[in-house]
Amino acid sequence: MEALIYDIEIVKAIPNKDGSKLAGIEYCAGWQDHANMGVATLCAYDYKDDRYRVFCKDNLADFIELAKDRMPVGFNNIAFDSKVLNAVTPFDETGQYDLLVEIWAACGLGPTFNFKTHGGFGLDIMCETNFGTKKTGHGALAPVDWQRGNIGAVIDYCLNDIKLTKQLFDEVLAGRDIKNPKGGTLMLRCPYPAILRR
């Protein structure tokens, strides 16, 4: 089964820790309020067709159909992206591969975030450490941009996250170690038998 890398950006903003909000911006209740976040855009890379894809409200069902015979791959997708997506449309969350969970596992950590032990492995630092590439913005600002009509900027940001996630996943498929930003290297579990690695 070919992989399908995906990432979403949400419609409603997340309130700041101090509860402050920007005027004229809609907010959900917080990072766990998946049901009220909404999907602004979902970007993907399809290994089967070697194609980058963009999905919004009008064609989101096309992604759900595409994912039925692909293995969804993401970065923090199990705890976040798939939960938000499943709140707006039925999405099979089984059989996913989450690079962040696999990084934690390679460090000897469990699959659930713990503030004291699991921090410091975000997509930005992982890719900067390994490839010298970085995110083009911050996910918390994407819903603000979306609501202000900066649709292209949000899609562009999401597509760059797909590129970064693919960089990491390609290393996994090649059976190569990745650098740990905290020192040393990590070998992530490959979801395919060794013979199928690219």
Summarize the structure in words.
By secondary structure, the protein is of the alpha/beta class. It has one domain: Ribonuclease H-like superfamily/Ribonuclease H (Nucleotidyltransferase, domain 5). The protein is built from 6 helices and 7 strands; from the N terminus they run E-E-E-H-E-H-E-H-H-H-H-E-E. The strands form 2 sheets. Strands 3-2-1-4-5 form a 5-stranded mixed sheet, sandwiched between helices. A two-stranded antiparallel sheet has the order 6-7. A hairpin with a 4-residue loop joins strand 2 and strand 3 (51-55). The longest helix is centred in the C-terminal third of the chain and has 23 residues, at 151-173.
Short description:
About 35% of the residues lie in helices and about 15% in strands. The chain has about 200 residues and is α/β, with parallel strands linked by helices.
Question: How are the elements arranged and paired?
Answer:
Layout: E1 3-10, E2 39-46, E3 51-55, H1 60-67, E4 71-74, H2 77-88, E5 97-98, H3 99-106, H4 123-131, H5 142-147, H6 151-173, E6 178-179, E7 185-186
Parallel strand pairs: 1-4, 4-5
Antiparallel strand pairs: 1-2, 2-3, 6-7
